Amino acid sequence: MIREPFADGWTVGPKLGAFESPTELTAPHPVHLPHDALRDLPRSADSDQGVHTGYTPGGVFEYARDIDVPEEWRDRTVLVEFEGVYRDAAVFLNGDFVVHEPNGYNAFTARLDPYLRFGEVNRLTVEARAHKDSRWYSGAGIYRPVHLVIADPVHIALGGLRVTTPDIDADRAIVEVSAVVENETRHTARTRITVVLTGPDGDEVARGTSPVSVLPGEPATARLRLVVPRPAVWGPDAPHLYRFEALLERDGEIIDEDATTFGIRRLQLDPQHGLRINGETVKLRGACVHHDNGPLGAAAFDGAEDRRIRLLKTAGFNAIRSSHNPASRAMLDACDRHGIIVMDELADTWTRAKTAFDGSVTFADRWRDDVAALVAKDVNHPSVVMYSIGNEILELATPVGSAWSRRLAEGIRSLDDTRFVTNGINGIIANLPRIAEAMAELEAADPNTMMANMGEQMALMNASEFVSASIEESAAVLDIAGFNYADSRYRGDGVDHPHRVVVGSETFPERIDVMWSLVTELPHVIGDFTWTGWDYLGEAGIGRVDYTDAEDYVATGTVGPYPYRLAESGDLDITGFRRTVSYYREIVFGLRRDPYIAVHRPQHHGRPTARTPWSWDDSVASWSFAIEPGSPVTVDVYADADDVELLLDGRSLGVQPVGAAKAFLARFETEYRPGELVAVARRGGAEVGRHALRTAGETGLVARAEASGDLIFVPITLEDAEGIVPSDRDLTVTVSVDGPGVLAGIGSGRARTEESFAGPSYTTYDGRVLAIARRTGPGALTVTASAAGFADASILI
Prior knowledge:
Elements: E1 3-5, E2 10-14, E3 29-31, E4 59-69, E5 77-82, E6 89-93, E7 96-101, E8 108-111, E9 120-130, E10 146-151, E11 154-168, E12 172-183, E13 189-198, E14 204-214, E15 220-229, E16 234-235, E17 238-239, E18 242-250, E19 253-262, E20 267-270, E21 274-277, E22 280-281, E23 284-289, H1 302-314, E24 319-322, H2 329-338, E25 341-345, H3 360-378, E26 384-391, H4 399-415, E27 420-425, H5 436-443, H6 447-462, H7 465-476, E28 481-484, H8 490-496, E29 502-507, H9 512-521, E30 525-530, E31 546-547, H10 580-588, E32 596-600, E33 609-610, E34 619-620, E35 631-638, E36 643-648, E37 651-657, E38 665-672, E39 676-683, E40 686-694, E41 700-703, E42 706-708, E43 711-719, E44 732-738, E45 741-747, E46 761-763, E47 768-775, E48 782-786, E49 793-796
Parallel strand pairs: 23-24, 23-30, 24-25, 25-26, 26-27, 27-28, 28-29, 29-30
Antiparallel strand pairs: 1-10, 2-3, 2-4, 4-9, 5-8, 5-10, 6-7, 6-9, 11-12, 12-15, 13-14, 13-18, 16-17, 18-19, 20-21, 21-22, 31-33, 32-34, 32-35, 35-38, 36-37, 36-39, 39-40, 41-43, 42-43, 43-47, 44-46, 44-48, 45-47, 48-49
């Protein structure tokens, strides 16, 4: 079927009762899809959704759109396809109920045929709900793309194309394709399917055809087995993509067509070689990611998803885990293009609830639909290598939980046996009732001490005999045992379960040096997925650093008090800017030769801090501070070397060994003076790399632009003539868009803020803010940034 975008002409407002009338505050307003109905709602400390959503309230929303239905649609199939509506979506046409989809991450279709009024304007409405149903910021509403489908009653089914590549060698690949044809008439349809495969260069590489007789109401599957000579295989370093186009003919006329991309690649898995793609072992440098797009809220714009994947790959990651819900189509498309391996996750809960109104209530009845939706979305994406059936499931260690593990794993395999099945197992979470006494002892201590020791305690518990026994069956149903915060199991599992393959499905960012040494040493451990690769909304403040001598400091453990909005736990912040931890990780991965300087903010030197296991140091790559020369400062240098020498304007500040305080790190206690700070890394006395920071001169406002689909990302910085950005001169920036476009969002990496992503003004963080414009038509577009005391920065696109 041919999909047409269905993004404009919509309105949204709070859902009113049957006898309520709209007021000025509740009147619907125009929106462009995808759209997040929660993003711009007022936040407050007393929000009943609390820290989970970054103190954003929930609500019930109604989207509406008029459809002009011509008479000629009487003989057509009319569908609206939703890629995702959060949550409990209910679709109505002219007030008549059409379809309900409880899962906020499933794609679903509204068949309008029975409800259409031909020759009239029809009213399509979509209700969506979000309230205390998620442990993170979910957004709400029609947050993923929507498509209108007008098709012949005899047509290729939506999602009806499938490709597998079961037999590959250097000379040729066997490509098995199928297409499901549907017949909604009263008579048998005699049709013909023609399949065309084109290669990465756009040239045709194979073609086949087959007649297909389709009985009324009984879908027919056409299958062809094609040979592709000298295949260009898909892999992380060379993500070659092919195109599969299907043409449906009747009486010599093409009545429908559809197409999908695919990759030719071979997967292998065993404890001796780990994960192999096309015969080569691949260690997964993984990032857990949530589904929001920062300043855009939960709205899944294609350009935003592509940019996120590109920047994650630039930062050294080669894999993502969609935590803890199925990824969008656009994100999978981006992973296909850029060579990122995907662990796509089904759900955060099964039958035991984690929040008041989450999906556990309907899971037992709906799991087959959820599994089918996940597989249907993923099946042609070469980037998807693993399906995860869950995350830290509460009932996993019980006999019933083990039965659910088996049921879900087999449910996926029955639909797609070409990929591997895993699960994010946390042995402590799965045994909470049994270890309540031990946890109570931990919680009796000072909260900061408890949090500081959590990583060690979790490691000890996760490796215990009773945890091992309790999760044995649930782990046995998997192809890959995913362990959350359980690297303490890696060595033992290699002995106790010699046929088990393991992945670190969720790990503490601060421990990547330990994790990666285990991954590289142990062949049965195929990779590590850090929490998290990209910062996100909700679980507010989970990765923050508190200064405990502050007057307003209150020990709250992992709960970031209002107005925290972001988790502050990403290698990249919500704007895509790389935090210092990202460069440390890149060096640990062996992807960066030069050292990297990270300066602890000198204005806080000597102050006591409280951290969580998801925290990194409060450091910046800057040597520009508005403090007195001679003020004390701590400087870290990340390096894969024996030692590091630090120089200021050519004068040595000393040499420190790498690894004394932490692996891959040399620490200096010195004094701040403006100038050029240079770190020189040496191994065996020979220089292996260097990194320099310089003090900024006179600064001005600078805007740059990067187009991605319909979106234009505009990083705005306060910098000097050499591009140096001081980290402590923040100011409020106002952004305007002139021409065929609008400001879609604006934000910074600051985790604690009351500012609105709707703009038009926002305060920089460490000298940076990101504006996002959305095109509304063709033509020149100008984005202008202004701030008091500075000349405007304008950019023409």
